[in-house]
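Quick one, tokens below:
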């Protein structure tokens, strides 16, 4: 929680100016959307809450396991996302991509087995 407390204001300091510079009239567009549909405020609040819980979950996983485990989980998540996108959206995957995802899954399995053996 302390890390999140220090990290969130720094993220605002760096990202808010970048957003205002890179996104044309973002404040005006957001206010216009809010006037047209008041649900946009709830969407933004819900999105913010989800982002908070994603960060909190990442910190808790790191605290209870290790940074390496968090990275391995991130790689596994990427492989799962690709499989889901292939199944649902029928996205094409090259042979090189398939070999990469296979290697990723194999690495996750090896890491899991290594973790079990060290306990």
């Amino acid at each position: 929680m302390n890390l999140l407390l220090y990290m969130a204001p720094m993220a605002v300091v760096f990202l808010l100016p970048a957003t205002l510079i890179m996104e044309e009239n973002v404040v005006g567009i957001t206010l216009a959307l809010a006037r047209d549909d008041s649900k946009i405020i709830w969407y933004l609040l819900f999105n913010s809450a989800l982002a908070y819980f994603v960060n909190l979950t990442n910190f808790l996983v790191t605290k209870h396991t290790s940074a390496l485990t968090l990275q391995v989980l991130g790689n596994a998540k990427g492989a799962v996302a690709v499989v889901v996108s292939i199944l649902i959206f029928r996205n094409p995957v090259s042979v090189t991509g398939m070999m990469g995802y296979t290697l990723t899954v194999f690495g996750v399995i090896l890491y899991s087995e290594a973790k079990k053996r060290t306990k």
